[in-house]
Design goal:
The longest helix has 30 residues. This protein has 791 residues and is α/β, with parallel strands linked by helices. Helix 1 crosses helix 4, helix 11 crosses helix 12 and helix 28 packs parallel to helix 31. The strands form 6 sheets. It has a 9-stranded mixed β-sheet with strand order 7-10-11-4-1-12-13-16-17, sandwiched between helices. Helix content is 49%, strand content 15%. The two termini are 27 Å apart. Strand 19, helix 23 and strand 20 form a beta-alpha-beta unit. The protein binds C-(1-azido-alpha-D-glucopyranosyl) formamide (CGF). C-(1-azido-alpha-D-glucopyranosyl) formamide binds next to helix 6.
């Protein structure tokens, strides 16, 4: 039977027997679910096969612990990785269903905030593509990252409900439950130490298979959901306390109810710490159960188990593993600490002081009374082993999770070359001196299956036609495109792909948001979380200055530009929310200006998420990566844009540095201070004011904002922003403005020469192969985990 016929049969079978529908009466969601089940069946075969091979081989396993997995949608990922796109399209077409419409019916699994969460998802897909035995461990949040909408230009948050629709991709595992304790007290009898938690919640497993390229392997993402041991209190019910009767269930579910919406900022909230311990303790229980079933001798643990901590969020893993090995299994503290350290490695994702997790010792001690004791013992053991050590992880009545993670890890890695070097000279300076071989670099990457093959089929088709399909799991083969780039005919086809992608996005913006834009404009895109260090306010300042300049000289040969924004601000981050409002207010005025309308438009698309990124990135001409140098640890959107033929306007920050090295300085619009120059500039008294006085364009843009040009009814609305920029301006928006303006005008000039621009764009694609998450994962496997592919 042909693959199409076999897929058709599976879909019809599932429509009928899984959803009780025949094609005539099936609704869109039925078709989406039936297709999903048909794809899931094929994934499950690979999954069970991989699980068996892993067990039989006795291979070392990788465990990726993360509070976030920003998965997005999974149906298209399954179809593409199983190479069933044409088959799925053919079957749906036969029944008059549109492939894109069926795919878009799936809600995003928004179980993450931004780069850190998406990186975890790309890593799992690469681990499966490579055939490296691995599990992802996370939390099955009932509500992922909030839905964003705009009311009068302001961000409004609404709860996200991904689980309210039927979800095809998880298998509930009622047999996999662990009791996780909190609070209570520690009892000591001689050498025996026992922790008696006051509150116990059950963690129940929900498994999602993660398929790799060509369906050759599939690993497991195991997400924990909070359950009450005794969900219903009948006694209280019988006494008429109906709410009280349901309370045990409600309390337990609270732990996995919602994702904390902060990106690169710690919360310090008790529930967050409970979530972190809940995930970590359940994961370690599961890891040790599987290890015991297969190997038994705990001294072998480091040889068979590699546990990666995705930032400090699961850092409690060190003390928890020691607690189980020492308190429950009777090994000595020293041996338990060595075995634990032999298993654990930690990735740092940010240097921002406000993002480095530190917990108040009282809160920590109340919630985890045994762990704080073990942390003190870890700290004193480390001090004994390193007499010259100054800084304790327990200073100032805090528990410093960054130091704990470093001390309890055999390797610590940064996520870009620049970031890793800065780790050694800033946050981990002393620990790096004490342990000079522990820090390694593993520059981030992105999966080319989702971020090129699936989201940009036009470009993927042209590439495969030109160099074959080997690039899909060996992305550096894209270099093979360079000879084609010299052929103007091929280059024109490359440019046409971008034009068609832009037309598709314009149509979509027209139908869904009533935003009608000319696809011939330069699509200048900044999509990422809202944060001052990412400097969306520098972008809108330049846009306003540009608008004013066009109004001065409307007949000049301006390059028509569409400024596209997307991104959420943490609900409590008011300065970031003000930047969103300013962008929307400026858009309202500038888009309505007949003088400049042909040359400048602004659009802020609401509810930016993985699926919207997949729609916007293939249509981008220019990638905005304009963070203050030294602040963006890596960035991963920057890699996706370069891969999809959007040159970067950016600073020497994070992975921008390596992108520029790979694509060539001539194919990158560099501006701004370096990380060192930033440190120097901050020492200059009144650096912002000086910059404003030196640049009339900047001054005028600030004046327009301060005078209420974009908030006529409330002139003082943005005084918070202008006062900050003309005052402290910690992220040096004003000091980098003039050079940013220069770079943007260079972009205008370059874009006019369509062939030269197409060449620059194509060279970005051809030379971005190194930024595949397959390359990154191979680095972790070799440098950190000592894990092998079983393919
Ligand atoms: N947390 N955190 N950190 C980040 C991102 N915000 O999620 O991790 C990402 C993944 O490593 C980085 O690319 C990004 O620069 C960094 O800020």
């Amino acid at each position: 039977m042909s693959p199409t016929a076999s897929l058709r049969e599976s879909i019809i079978q599932h429509l009928r027997y899984s959803f009780g529908k025949d094609p005539e009466h099936a609704i869109l969601e039925d078709w989406r679910m039936a297709l999903s089940y048909a794809v899931r069946d094929r994934i499950t075969d690979a999954w069970i096969g991989a699980t068996g091979k892993t067990y039989d081989s006795g291979a070392k396993r990788v465990y990726y612990l993360s509070m976030e997995f920003l998965i997005g949608r999974l149906l298209e990922d399954g179809i593409v990785n199983l190479e069933l796109v044409d088959e799925a399209k053919a079957v749906l077409e036969e029944f008059g269903k549109d492939y894109g419409t069926v795919l878009s019916d799936e809600p995003d699994a928004a179980l993450g905030n931004g780069g850190l969460g998406r990186l975890a998802a790309c890593f799992l897909e690469s681990l499966s593509t490579i055939g490296c035995p691995a599990h992802g461990y996370g939390i099955r949040y009932e509500h992922g990252l909030f839905r964003q909408s705009f009311v009068d230009g302001r961000q409004v948050e609404q709860p996200e409900h991904w689980l309210e629709q039927r979800h095809a991709w998880e298998f509930e595992r009622p047999e996999v439950r662990y009791r996780i304790g909190f609070g209570g007290h520690v009892d000591r009898r001689g050498e025996t130490v026992r922790w008696y938690p006051a509150e116990v919640v059950e963690a129940e497993a929900f498994d999602t298979p993660v398929i790799g390229w060509k369906g050759r392997w599939a690993n497991t993402l195991r997400l924990w959901s909070g359950r009450a041991i005794h969900p219903f209190d009948l006694d209280r019910f019988n006494h008429g306390d109906f709410a009280g009767a349901a309370q045990p269930e409600a309390l337990a579910r609270t732990i996995s109810r919602v994702l904390y919406p902060d990106d690169t900022t710690e919360q310090g909230k008790e529930l967050r710490l409970k979530q972190e311990y809940f995930l970590t303790a359940a994961a370690l229980r599961d890891i040790l159960r599987r290890f015991n079933n297969q190997f038994g001798d705990l001294r072998k643990l480091p040889a068979k188990v590699a546990i990666q901590l995705n930032d400090t969020h699961p850092a409690i893993a060190g003390p928890e593993l020691i607690r189980v090995l020492h308190d429950e299994r009777g090994l000595s503290f020293e041996e338990s600490m060595e075995i634990a350290r032999g298993c654990l490695s930690y990735t740092n994702h940010t240097l921002l002081p406000e993002a480095l997790e530190t917990w108040d010792e009282t809160l920590f001690g109340r919630l985890l009374p045994r762990h704080i004791e073990l942390i003190d013992q870890i700290d004193s053991t480390h001090a004994k082993q390193n007499p010259s050590r100054m800084n304790s992880m327990r200073a100032d009545h805090q528990v410093k999770m960054g130091q704990l993670s470093f001390v309890m890890a055999h390797h610590v890695n940064g996520v870009s070359a620049l970031h890793t070097e800065l780790m050694k000279t800033t946050v981990f300076e002393e620990l790096h001196t004490l342990h000079p071989d522990r820090i390694v670099n593993e520059t981030n990457g992105v999966t080319p299956r989702r971020w090129l093959l699936a989201c940009n089929p036009r470009l993927a088709g042209l590439i495969t036609e030109s160099i074959g399909e080997g690039w899909v799991d060996d992305l550096e083969q894209l270099k093979g495109l360079e000879p084609f780039i010299e052929d103007t005919g091929w280059l024109d086809r490359y440019a046409q792909v971008k034009r068609d992608n832009k037309a598709e996005l314009s149509n979509w913006m027209g139908t869904t948001h009533g935003l009608h834009v000319d696809p011939e404009m330069l699509f200048d895109v900044q999509i990422k979380r809202l944060h001052e260090y990412k400097r969306q306010h520098l972008n809108i300042l330049e846009t306003i200055a540009h608008w004013a300049e066009i109004r001065d000289n409307p007949t000049a040969d301006w390059t028509p530009r569409l400024k596209l924004f997307g991104g959420k601000a943490a609900p409590g981050y008011f300065f970031a929310k003000d930047i969103i409002r300013l962008i929307n207010d400026a858009a309202a005025v500038i888009n309505a200006d007949p003088v400049t309308a042909p040359y400048l438009k602004i659009a802020f698309l609401p509810n930016y998420n993985v699926s919207l990124a997949e729609r916007m990135i293939p249509a981008a001409d220019l990638s905005e990566q304009i963070s203050t140098a030294g602040k963006e640890a890596s960035g991963t959107g920057n890699m996706k844009f370069a891969l999809n033929g959007a040159p970067t306007v950016g600073t020497l920050d994070g992975a921008n540095v390596e992108i520029r090295e790979h694509v060539g300085a001539e194919n990158f619009f560099l501006f701004g201070m370096t990380a060192e120059e930033v440190m120097e500039r901050r020492k200059v008294e009144g650096h912002a004011w000086k910059a404003v006085q030196a640049d009339p364009r900047l001054k005028r843009a600030l004046d327009l904002i301060r005078d209420g040009r974009f908030s006529p009814g409330e002139p003082e609305r943005y005084h918070g922003i202008t006062a900050n920029l003309e005052g402290a301006d910690y992220f040096l928006v004003c000091s980098d403005f003039t050079d940013y303006w220069r770079a943007q005008r260079e972009v205008d000039t370059a874009f006019k020469d369509t062939r030269a621009w197409a060449k620059m764009a194509a060279l970005n694609t051809a030379r971005s192969g190194w930024f595949s998450s397959d390359r990154t994962i191979r680095g972790y496997m070799a440098d950190i985990w000592g894990a092998q592919s079983l393919l």
